[in-house]
Amino acid sequence: MTIDTLQPPVAARRPHSISHHGVTIEDPYFWLRDPSYPKVDDPAILAHLNAENAYFEAQMKPYAPLVEVLFREMKGRLKEDESSVPQKDGNFLYWRRFEKGAQYKQWMRKPVVGGDDEVILDEAKEAQGTEFFRLGEIAITEDDRIMAWSSDTDGSERFTIQFRDLATGKNLADAIPGTLGGMVFSKDGQSLFYGLVNENWRIDRIMRHTLGTPAVSDQTVYIEPDRGFQTGVGMTHDRNWIVIAAGDNETSEVHLIPSNNAETKPLLVRARRKGVEYDVEAHGDTLFIHTNDTSPQFRLVTAPIANPGDWTERIAPSTSFYMTDVTTFADFFVVEGRDNGLDQVELHKYEGGTPRRIEFPEASYSAGLDENPEYQVSSLRLSYESMVTPDTIAEYSLATDTMKTLKVQEIPSGYDADQYVTERLEITARDGITVPVSVVYRKDFRKDGNGPLYVYGYGAYGIAIPPGFSTLRLSLLDRGFAYAIAHIRGGDDLGQQWQLEGKLTKRTNTFNDFVDCTKGLIALGFARPGRVVAAGGSAGGELMGVIANTDPDLWGALAAHVPFVDVLNTMLDDSLPLTPGEFPEWGNPIEDKDAFDLIRSYSPYDQVKAQDYPPILATAGLNDPRVTYWEPAKWVAKLRAAKTDDNMLLLKTNMGAGHGGKSGRFESLREDAEEYAFFLWQLGMAAQ
To answer: Does 17-75+416-682 match 133-268 in CATH topology?
Structure first.
């Protein structure tokens, strides 16, 4: 195949149709889905993706110097020999560091009583010879001797567990392929519990591996019968109970195994009930259970381990405080949550009394517990940041109620927080609901409608987007941009009810909120139509696809990263890894015609039509198990055939990566630089 890099690739149209609920839908780009996926070896498909990549490279080539400038700016804001603050866990202090110029971390420790620094895992060495490397989990036995770690070397999110004797530095022969999720050792260090992923990329069983034995002889501890559920394994903070959690996007169930008796049959805490979520901590003989069984604001209940289904309310649901997490320590427990979307950390005594809420200094921020591995503590490690305050690690003294800063994110190229302003705005959506928006800009930004504006959104799965700090966005702020995060429905920024108002039959609230927030920012003078760029990934990429269809004139350019844009086809195919578990989020169009009609009405791929579209940059990962590569590929092909404008439309597929893009902290920066360069180019600001 000869590739003309000056002309956009034109995908062939091949007849294909599907019929559901009496409706027939033509899908001429269905062929871009390789039938042998997750293996992709169809020559025509690979040729098309390579042609799109060549076109991307050719169109971006004139702006390669700008990409390089942005990349160097971004890299210059990262401390190359970065190191985390050492934290005590038993007999050792543990931390992570980057050596100067390194793409990957080294995992370090040294004895608390003194001694040499020890590299227990060097990611760079493990990544040698691979195009992609991502560390999954690390677990260490209580005697500090054996370490297990998992890694993914192609972006498919199928991890292999390996083991190392930390006393000798030598790897053990044990290896467990095809895993996903967490892993924990039993108290005696002889057994490792982990999740095994099936051919549909679903963790449907928890296994127990005995050190020194082959993986094929591992014992099945738990099998999940519902194909819409995923399972995972963890441990209570007191390390006395191994936790097996099963759930989908709205329902959960927990089983417990005593960590000192690895072969014990799992103990069910309470049987699953549709729509009820709960998670479990322990203190002595009592379980502390965080649940939404009576309210989407969640409450805290307790139960005796001898009768774990007998729940007694400890903290009732609050109308204003959304409880997100509970962590038990030896002498107190911590409740985390959000008041009006702002993070809060509360300390509670087991014997009762008024809780102590830790105060934070700014009106808009992100804060919470950091790494606190030990159960018996006299201080807490906290993290704090805002849109103008770099990531800060602090230590809170329980005895004195005081905070000591341990580390502030260092920005080698320089940063003056006084040059920037952050606001938390409230914008009214079309249905009268007030939506919060966090904005940051330089003090010299003028709200006269002429400034460029970048708006980010996600809005799904109850994932909140905190108003945190980013060194990346400084490259936009210093070029005159305002940067906004729209805390739209579908996330749980304002509580779980906020999530419920943006899912299933109310899904379109998410899209409307984003558009209305943008229009509200325009009305406040942050920009004008055509001077706004927007970006989102995965479900946020779906958002980008929808707003491209519904309000194309608003946007100066859009970036849709690994976008979930072929929503209807994906949700109609329950053989795909994630589809059965996604029904509680999007609806089940296979069985429910109303769900079919609703999804079809907003699915970006299905709603592509003959109209002008804004400039669009789309990205994909060939090995992505979450949003399959063919979704953006089909979407871009259909857009090319339908759109009536000459605006730029680019697709870049990472041929050796997955959902998260390239691995390595510098390689991923280059992709951010490409997005920013695309936006500057499209807004006529490439010379800045």
So the answer is: no
- SS in 3 state form for 478-535? CCCCEEEEECCECECCCCHHHHHCCCHHHCHHHHHHHHHHHHHHHHCCCCCCCCEEEE
Q: Which residues pair with 287 in a beta bridge?
A: 282, 303
CB 644: neighbour CB atoms within 10 A? 10
Q: What amino acid occupies position 272?
A: R
Instruction: Enumerate the active-site residues.
Output: 538, 624, 659
The answer to whether 560 and 549 have CB atoms below 8 angstroms apart is no
Q: CA of 391: how far to CAs of 59, 117, 379, in Å?
A: 36, 25, 19
Alpha-carbon distance 111 to 94, whole Å?
9
CATH class, 17-75+416-682 region? alpha beta
Span 424-446, pLDDT tens digits: 999 999 999 999 999 999 999 99
Domains of the chain: which residue ranges?
A: 17-75+416-682, 81-129, 133-268
**What fold does the segment set 133-268 form as a domain?**
Methylamine Dehydrogenase; Chain H (2.130.10)
How confident is the model over 381-397, as pLDDT tens digits?
999 999 999 999 999 99
64-76 and 665-682 helices, crossing angle to 10°? 130
Conformation bin of residue 140: beta by default, left when phi > 0, alpha when psi is -120 to 50: beta
Give the model confidence (pLDDT) of 630-659 as tens digits: 999 999 999 999 999 999 999 999 987 655
